[in-house]
Amino acid sequence: MEATTKPVTRENISDESKWDLSGLYTQKSDWQEDFDQLEKDIAGYESFKGALADSVRRIKACLEFDIDISRRIEKLYTYAHLRNDEDKTDAPNQSTFEKVVRLHTRTAQASSYIPSELMAIPEDRMNEFLQDKELEFYKLHLERILRHRKHTLSEAEEKLLASSTEMARAARDAFEMLDNADLKLGTVIDENENEIAITQGNFQSLMQNQDRRVRKEAFETFYSAYADHQYTYASLLASSIKKDIFYARERNHKSVREKAMFSENIPVEVYDNLVTTVHENLAPLHKYFSIRKRILKLDELHIYDTSVPLVKDVHWHVGYNDSVTKIIASLQLLGSDYTKKLQQGLTEGRWVDRYESKGKRSGAYSSGCYDSNPFILMNYREDNINSMYTLAHEAGHSMHSFLSRQAQPYLYADYTIFVAEVASTFNEALLTKYLLSQDIDQSMKIYLVCREIDNLRGTLYRQTMLAEFEHQMYTAAENDQPMTLDAFKEIYKKLLEKYFGEETVLDDCLSLECFRIPHFYFSFYVYKYATGISAAYALADKVSEGGTTELDNYLNFLKGGGSEYPIDLLKGAGVDMTSPGPIHTALGKFSTLVDQLESLTA
């Protein structure tokens, strides 16, 4: 499929290039039948209410019922959200998605008494229950619930909070509709005098255009759209922050950050170590910008100059299937079982919805449920090497999910977000290593070294900057400072100045960038990209340089799912994220690459 100047309609994309959801439901009527049955079955929660303290058997029966409901609604939700993301303007798919979200809310309401009722059982009696063989399988699950004892409210309060979850999505939903459907990003005339419609999907490609006039105009046009809606974006983000603060305070957490990290049992020191260690290693980043400025022969380096390839005679054009071939070749050290399954999924298995189309959700992700294969949303572009890396990244997520679901029961199959980015960035690191090992000329070597630098810059430095912004804005809001448009922009601008240094000119409109980050609507997510890439590079080194033991440790980590806390899973694979060591390793890799780039371009 050739790159196009504007999004095509979904009907014009071949079936082989779209994901196959028939493994979930072959027709909408089957989905509706399951939906109707589940809607009736949730009434069964009432039969356990008020009786959990009676016996071990009552607790076990309640958990079995709850797990069954959860698994069924997950399947319904997965199908509905994937269909909705195919075209965010499609009213029937929107309706289906909203129906299952409302059902999820009603289920949460019906089951909301379970944690509080379990925690109301005296500790001595609960400890006796936990020693019973009947609850052996559920012991870890129950211990994870019970550690929230001081953050769990009364039954009536829990029900009220559960009832509010659908309403609490309002700011996020509005942001997604504005950013993906309503926002008009304008057009730009490219170097061949073609008018290009700017989209969320092709913006990065435009930032890599060798014609500086195209980059500058695309950048300014893109951000002018955000300037036109900046007060709305600021209001939505402020509303989301207020929502998070409300839930954190009602659940007796000191802060939103503490609440977010408590859920995964991550010490807050991990967050602070990340920011501190990156601050200590900003010099190589600033050196990189200086090298860029020199090679591009610019009097001023702007943000729209920081992504363009540093060699002009390398034109990237790789089709989807060719990308799959390169990705599979790069992952051979993970074994034939891994690579054969992944190749089948990315091609004839139709895990992937490959190309951008009108109304389709922007970006990329890996999704799925316990009763389905993984699914990958892409907006693949043949003219942008980032598309191949994104595919490798999402394939890492998908294989992590596939292996954990294959090895673990439903209750312990889902891994937490803290480790979610490890497998994905691990794959990217191996892809770069493979490409650099090929017989390539000097220009391609410079291109790939620069690409690896930019990957570390975007995932380690940038995500740490975003994490620092997130912490500062929540801290300000929790101290009752009004989160206005100017407040957001001021915090963000100061961080831009710190991270980009004196070599980069910061255009005023760049302060609006904070409003286009969807992850800010999932509080304290972005730091996990930075910790994830640090763990991934440490593991990639271990697996590449080690033997069977190191490979088995890594694969066992992938298969571990949620059977242990994430910090412990990584320790089992050989990486301790409570220390700054893995972060220093990744930053050291960045510094070495910058020195290598300096040498290659001397």
Question: What would the keywords be for this entry?
Answer:
602 residues, Butyryl-CoA Dehydrogenase, subunit A, domain 3, Neurolysin, domain 3, 25 helices, 3% strand, globular
Describe what is shown at a glance.
Helices cover about 60% and strands about 5% of the residues. Among the domains are: about 10-170, Oligopeptidase f, N-terminal domain (Butyryl-CoA Dehydrogenase, subunit A, domain 3); about 255-315 and about 415-600, Neurolysin, domain 3 (Orthogonal Bundle), CATH 1.10.1370. It is mainly α.
Folded structure, characterized:
This protein has 602 residues and is mainly alpha-helical. Among the domains are: 10-168, Oligopeptidase f, N-terminal domain (Butyryl-CoA Dehydrogenase, subunit A, domain 3, Up-down Bundle), CATH 1.20.140.70; 253-314 and 416-602, Oligoendopeptidase f, C-terminal domain (Neurolysin, domain 3, Orthogonal Bundle). The chain is built from 25 helices and 7 strands. It has helices at residues 28-41, 56-86, 91-111, 113-120, 123-130, 139-146, 155-163, 165-168, 170-182, 203-207, 212-228, 230-250, 256-262, 268-279, 283-295, 320-330, 336-346, 385-407, 417-437, 442-478, 485-500, 527-545, 548-559, 566-573, 581-600, and strands at residues 187-189, 195-197, 301-302, 352-353, 365-367, 375-377, 504-505. It has a 3-stranded mixed β-sheet with strand order 4-6-5, with helices on one face.
Widest β-sheet, arrangement of strands = 4-6-5
CATH class of one domain: Mainly Alpha
Strand content: under 5%
How much is the radius of gyration in Å?
A: 24 Å
Mean pLDDT: 94
What is the CATH homologous superfamily assignment of one domain? Oligoendopeptidase f, C-terminal domain
Q: From the 3D structure, determine the CATH topology of one domain.
A: Neurolysin, domain 3
Oligomeric state as shown: single chain
Number of DSSP E strands: 7
Tell me the helix content: 55-70%
Total helical segments: 25
Distance between the termini: 38 Å
Envelope shape = globular
Unreliable residue stretches: none
Biggest sheet overview: 3 strands, mixed
Q: If classified by CATH, what would the architecture of one domain be?
A: Orthogonal Bundle
State the secondary-structure class.
Answer: mainly alpha
